[in-house]
Write a structure and sequence with these properties.
By secondary structure, this protein is α+β, with helices and mostly antiparallel strands. It has 11 helices and 14 strands. Strands 2, 3, 4, 5, 6 and 9 form a 6-stranded antiparallel sheet that branches. Helix 1 runs antiparallel to helix 2 and helix 6 runs antiparallel to helix 7.
Length: 392
């Protein structure tokens, strides 16, 4: 069975945009990137609505492709209805790329020109097709990849969530492997650096946080013409059902009788030397029993420690706090705001708002970014209120 072993999520306004219209969700096993479009900052609204549609996760995980497509279509309806009822948000829309990590496969839902990739065995595989004018022309053989890079209409997309009342959602499932690294990104990355450069950065940085920060920096160094969002996920294999020993055996281990000593000696007496051992109780058997008893006791301790560790992990998954990421953006974190020795963090980034902490008043920063542990609903509500206040 596969699971997410490491993840990173980050977004940046770029060098030439005044606002960030990208939104993302990184909540294992579900990951989403949306790149909004529309005037009067309506793109921010569209991309946020798209991401919010996936906040509660998949309710029909037995068919992840279907579940992802249904959530994408629900987001499309919400965005379209809002654009029809609000003149300031007329025509708004957003791209969407969503990935769900299953036990053996990765399911993908996709609309627009944000992308999903897989780095496997040193090779970068693109898992989505752009719904853009230049890609349509390339698929028809009317445009070469080299011509597409400089085409004046390279930013025109042919499909998005919101502009129409209904939308076609591309879905697929990809057979996953342990060690795979999956990349979701907005076109602010792929229009600034090539796929060869992306692969080189990923291969040069074993830690996903380092790789993600390097990709965003590379896009900005190349000009940063657009917002850039990067989500990275590494998978590992988990062996199911492997435990040191059955739990029911551990429950009776401490009740095993002590090894009998000769009746002529008190229980606290020195153990007889091999020559003094009674012929009916050879020393090797006694030693084997003691080793077995110690091994069983150790196994019991390991199982109890594992259960306590699992309980602590589950508890950390139910609490959230609000802080800032390395670029000063207000971020929702899952877990507790602490690090163990060896830089082992007890938290992970769950949602990056795109709101810079520098835009907040000192009083607002002090109350919002105090790392207080909160419920998911409370923390998400505070983030949403903050984003809405930025639009006013």
């Amino acid at each position: 069975m596969l699971r997410v072993a490491e993840q990173y999520s980050g977004t940046d306004t770029g060098r030439q945009r005044r606002a960030n219209e990208d939104s993302m969700l990184a909540r294992s096993p579900l990951f989403v990137v949306a790149d909004g479009m529309g005037g009067a900052r309506a793109g921010e609204v569209a991309s946020r609505i798209a991401v919010e549609a996936f906040q509660s996760g998949l309710h029909a995980a037995s068919d992840p492709e279907l579940a992802l497509a249904e959530l994408a279509r629900a987001a499309n309806s919400r965005i379209h209805d809002l654009s029809q009822s609000n003149a300031e948000q007329a025509g708004m829309g957003t791209t969407l790329t969503a990935v769900y990590v299953g036990e053996q496969e990765v399911a993908i839902a996709h609309v627009g020109d944000s992308r999903a990739y897989c780095l496997r065995d040193g090779e970068l595989l693109r898992l989505t097709d752009d719904h853009s004018l230049v890609d349509e022309l390339m698929r028809q053989g009317r445009l070469t990849p080299e011509e597409a890079v400089e085409h004046p209409q390279r930013s025109v997309i042919t499909r998005a969530l919101g502009p129409e009342g209904s939308v076609e959602v591309d879905t697929r499932s990809f057979r996953a492997r342990a060690g795979d690294v999956y990349l979701l990104c907005s076109d602010g990355l792929t229009t600034m650096i090539s796929e060869e450069q992306i692969a080189a950065v990923l291969l040069a940085h074993p830690l996903l946080r380092d790789a993600g920060e390097a990709l965003i920096a590379a896009a900005n160094d190349a000009g940063g013409r657009d917002n850039v969002t990067v989500v990275l996920v590494r998978l590992e294999e988990v062996q199911v059902g492997q435990t040191p020993a059955p739990v029911e055996e551990h429950a009776t281990m401490t009740e095993l009788p002590a090894v009998s000593l000769p009746a002529s000696e008190p229980r606290a007496a020195r153990r007889p030397r091999a020559a003094e051992q009674p012929s009916s109780q050879p020393a090797p058997d006694a030693r084997r029993r003691r080793r077995l008893r110690r091994a069983r006791g150790l196994a019991a301790v390991l199982v109890i420690a594992g259960l306590l560790g699992s309980g602590a992990y589950l508890a950390l998954q139910s609490v959230y706090f609000i802080g800032t990421n390395s670029r000063g953006l207000v971020t929702l974190y899952r877990g507790a705001p602490y690090q163990l020795p060896g830089n082992l963090a007890l938290y992970s980034s769950d949602y990056v708002s795109g709101v810079s902490a520098s835009t907040l008043t000192p009083e607002r920063r002090q109350t919002l970014l105090d790392h207080s542990l909160r419920s998911e609903a409370d923390a998400s509500s505070l983030i949403r209120s903050l984003e809405l206040s930025q639009l006013e």
